[in-house]
């Protein structure tokens, strides 16, 4: 939704420039475009940091606990699963 709003503002600004719109109209459209951009960028989640350092004792202990609890699993698959939690 926010991406479409941003894209619509870009298209509208391009159209107004092509129509040689008054400067005050262009300034207002640029302001609204900047607001749409800030909303869109603000809505994007930053990647989360991993819970454990790869190869650390803490990671190994958590992996063992999960393997005992749920079932035996390769550590690479467990790391991928952990990213979704």
Summed up:
By secondary structure, this protein is mainly α. Helix content is 71%, strand content 0%.
Number of domains: 2
**Shape, principal axes of CA atoms:** rod-shaped
Distance between the termini: 25 Å
Subunit organisation of the chains? single chain
- Low confidence ranges: none
Question: Can you walk through the features of this model?
Answer:
This protein is an all-alpha fold. The chain has helices at residues 2-18, 23-43, 57-69, 75-83. The protein starts with a helix and ends with a helix.
List keywords for this structure.
85 residues; mainly alpha; 4 helices
Show the helix and strand layout.
Layout: H1 2-18, H2 23-43, H3 57-69, H4 75-83
